[in-house]
Every structure is written in C-alpha cells, then in structure tokens.
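Batch manifest line 606
LIGAND: xanthosine-5'-monophosphate
JOB: complex structure
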Amino acid sequence: MRHDAIAVIDFGGQYAHLIATKIRRLHVLAEIRQPDDATDIFARYQGIVLSGSPSLSSFGEDSQYNRAIYDLDVPIVGFCFGHQELAKHYGGTVMHGRQEWGPADLQIVGDSPLFTGLSKVERVWMSHFDSVTSVGPAFEEIGYTTLGESGAAHRFAAIGSNSLRRYGVQFHPEVDDTVHGDEMIANFVLGICGCRASWTMERYVEERVEQVRRQVGDESVFLLASGGVDSTVAARLLGMAIGPERLHLLHVDNGLMRKDESRDVMAMFRAFGLEQNLHFVDASETFLSALAGAVEPERKRKIIGNTFIEVFEREARRLGIERHLLGQGTIYPDTIETGGTKRADTIKTHHNRVPIIEEMLAQGRVVEPLADLYKVEVRELGEKLDIPHEMTWRHPFPGPGLGVRLLCSGGSESRDGFDAIEPAVAAVASRHGLDARALPIKSVGVKADLRSYEHPVMLCGDAPWERLLEVAGQLFKGVPGINRCIWNLGLSAPARVRPLAASVTKDRLDLLREADHLVMEGLRRHGIYGDIWQCPTVLVPMEVDGTGREFVIVRPVHSERAMTATPAHLPTPLLDELRAQILALPGVSGLALDITTKPPGTIEWE
Ligand code: XMP
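JOB STATUS: finished
ARTIFACT:
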C-alpha cells in the first residue's frame, strides 16, 4: 500500500539528507533509500527524489542503480546528478565541462507545476561540471539559467514531462541559497505527488514508540546516557515505549569528560525524574589504559568506541541485567560521517558506529530511536517531550569527548609538502599585511565529501575579522595540502614551532579540562553561549617557545546541522580575557583561534 511518504535516493551527495529534512519540514515523511533497493520498496512511495552525487559522474563508469524505478507510476524529480540521469534515461544527452558554481538566475519557461507560484526569474544555486544538452521527445525545457546581463544562456537547467510526471533540475533546491527552493520542493511533494501534510513530530513519536516496542519485545534496554541532548531525548522516548522499569540508564565517566561534567549530568538526570534505574560507573582508568600510546585519530576513536562496549557489558553483568538490548542516541550525521551509507567516505568513525556496534546492529541488538534525525529535529522533539530548555540547547559534545580534542604526537616533525606550502601561504598572507606559516602537525578535515588529514596554517598579525576570514578562504582555494587556518592570539608571533611527543594522559586531560572550562565560562559570562553552536577547545602538542609547553586552540562555530559550519566571531574583551587566563595556565605557551569553515575543516580537530 502507498503511504504519504517520499523516497530520497542517496547517490552519496552531501545534501541527500538535507532533501529529506526539507521534505519533513513540509510535514511529509521522507526516507533515505539506497540506489539498489528493490523496486517494490520504491513502489510504496508517493514520489521519488534522485539526489546529487559527488563521486559518480554521468561520464564515469556506468552508475549502478535500480533503473526499474522509471517504470513505476510514481512521480520522480532529479536534482543535479539525478537531473542528468533522468535526462539520459529518457533519450537526452549530457556533456562534460559546462560547469557553473554558486549563484545563477533561472529563467522559467512555460508553466510547469514544479514552479507554480514562482516568479519568471529565480535565484538558484549551482555546483556541477556536467550539463544536460538535449532532452528526449517526451520532455521539454522548463527553465534555463543566465548569470549577469551579458551571460550566455545555459540551456536545460530544468526539464519536465507532465505526462510522465518526471522532472529534473540542475541546481540544488534543497540548499538555503536557492531562494525559493522550499517552494519548489513543496510543489513536487504536495502538488505533483499529492502527499498530505500529515507527518508531525507527534506522529514521529507514535511511530518510533511502536517500532521500539516491536523490536524490544519483553526484553530490557540498557542505554548509554552521556547527558547530551541526543541520549537524553532517546531516554525519554524509550521510557515512553517500554516503561521506566525496563529502561536502564548507564552514565560512564570515561575520563574524557569536561570539568565536573559527570557530577552535573547525574544531578540533572535526577532533577528530571530519570533516577529510576540510573547507574553510574567511573571507568576513567579503563579508558586511559586502553588509550595509552595511541596517537592516530581513527585509532583513538575506535579504542574509545570499543571500550564503551566493554564497560557496558561489564556493568550489565555486574548489575545482573539479563536479556537486554543496547540503547544509543545515535543521530543521522553519526552514520553519514562514519561512511555508514554505501557511497559516503569515512570522515571519522563516531563512537557509536565502531565495528563491534555495527555487528550488534546487524543482529538487531541495538535500539536507536533517533537514527534518522538531525540535531535540530532532536531538539524540537526534546521540547515536545518537555525536556527542559537548558538541557535541549546544550552545546553538542562528541561521544569520545576530550579524547578527540587532545591531539597526540610521536614528536617527529610532519612537514610533507612544506617546500611548496610555505612560500604559497606566505605570499597570500603578505598581500594582506599578515604572516603565515604551515604547522608541522595534522588535523582531520573534509574536502569534496572526502576525509582529509592535512596541515593547519597559522596567521599572525592584526586584521579585522572579515579580512581574516577572507585570507583563510584564499589560502584554502589557492594552496593544496592545508585544511585549517588558525589565528595567533599570543602576544607575539612564535619564533619556532616544534611538535612535542605526547599521548593521552590524565595530566594533559586535566590541563585541557581547565582551558575548556575557562572558555565555556567566558561564553556564558558574555551572554553568547546560546548564539554559538559549539566551541571545542583543543590541546595541541606543539611548543612555540622552546619550553616544552603546549598550544591551545579555541574553535567557536555557527552551524545548523553540523554538516557545514562557519567560524564564530568572539567579542574582543572575551578574547583578551581568554588570552590572559589561558596563557597563564602552567603547561600552556600559545593560544590561537580556529577560523576555518567546514569544509575544508571539520568542527572537531580529530
Ligand atoms: P565534525 O568534527 O565531523 O563533527 O565536524 C560534527 C558533529 O559531530 C560531533 N561528533 C561526534 N558526536 N560521536 C558523537 O556523538 C562522535 O564520535 C563524534 N565525532 C564528532 C561533533 O562534536 C560535531 O558536533
């Protein structure tokens, strides 16, 4: 039977999930589907969206997907790569090399139902190398693009066949920069597909509660509850589904928490009435000894993820909780970043997606009621479930905690590509009166949907905030081999920068905890905690003054879904206070602000 829902086929583009989110905002259920899912699965939907794709070019090896979808009597719309595939399937042609980036003006032709209610010219957002150059007999051009007065027309930017109910657009209606993209999506979903706007958070809750009951049967759930918004909302939902008696919450102090975090989290759970079956274990020793000597970020992430499971199983045995499933507050970005969809690259392994958990998932032993939501939706759900505001709006804190903010090093200098990087970055910065140098360490980033592990650049000197961001942008565009830019907040430009040998130790964690505490207090004191998405503080084993003391980096960002981010501007008085307080910590010799967008950096350094 058909239900009021849309399938979004994920060809690996970074916006596939964003399409689903935008559809859900119309109160219609959207589900992410794989290109090779069975035809009868697709037949159950009221409409299908073909997403973009970073890795599959229409010109690469023949892209594999279930083309029987085109035989279904279900409306289909393709965006970007999907547009090109649809055009080709119905006898059109696609050529390589007619590219557009960023803004374009869509000149609408005729009166396609896809563009009902819109103006004749619409601002849209482009990102493509390949273009549709002709369409098959059933199709017509419903829009072409121009840019500026004199720009040549770029044909077949939008195509459609009302008789087949097939449409394609070269641009991305799902990104916010396509000004009326939401209206175009609504025209497809509510108009062409005829979906009713009946999917609400209340319905989502009902569906999840049902699903959890079916999955859990008469067993118990043992939920890893960090105190973050995801696991807390998951706890509330699980409690509704199976009742408080069969729900056990386990808060693990893994030694990688913020200052006084575990104490505060336990108090918070009690205050919310979640104290029934609330368990706490201080496993910091176990985690620290597991991490001893680990340097490489992915290795650290996997150790932390595995140790969570080890501790969880030990505690379940100790408490005599038999026949239980593992509960987690996993959300969609955890899966996509771990490369958990077929075509996505592993940017970083999230703690709740290590191989042992993947195995348990395959056996149906893991309950994750929020696995297809983003943080904004989890927060919305949290408010619906009466979780207090201060809890729902806490900054996100990653499962591996300070473990991914405490960089480690064998101590040897990593200077790959420096001969080319150093003169190039110096040349760009000097045009703006700044000094720049590449740093002999590496951090994780994301470039064109792929993981990168590259050098940061440090800018030294004074310039207005907008100028600093502009220089950072020029560096990323012009110099290969770098994925981050930091701005020195120290009193002078460092004479010599050298990596230090360092691993995960309690002393280093205590130092990072203190620096992080100063930053968090500062944000609250200046009343800007709520304006900022997240603000990691990072301890980098790098000395700038020959004393063996380390370097601290503060990374305030704005974001909506953590898939992209922009650096947040902190007020100068706060920067002055942080400079005084953090540089006074024993063990710290330098301080900088991370001014990197995502991409090319990620929010966390590892
Ligand atoms: P990145 O660093 O990739 O992070 O830009 C995106 C968001 O995810 C958080 N993050 C994690 N959350 N387990 C989590 O629960 C993890 O292993 C993990 N790694 C990163 C990060 O803090 C940011 O909000």
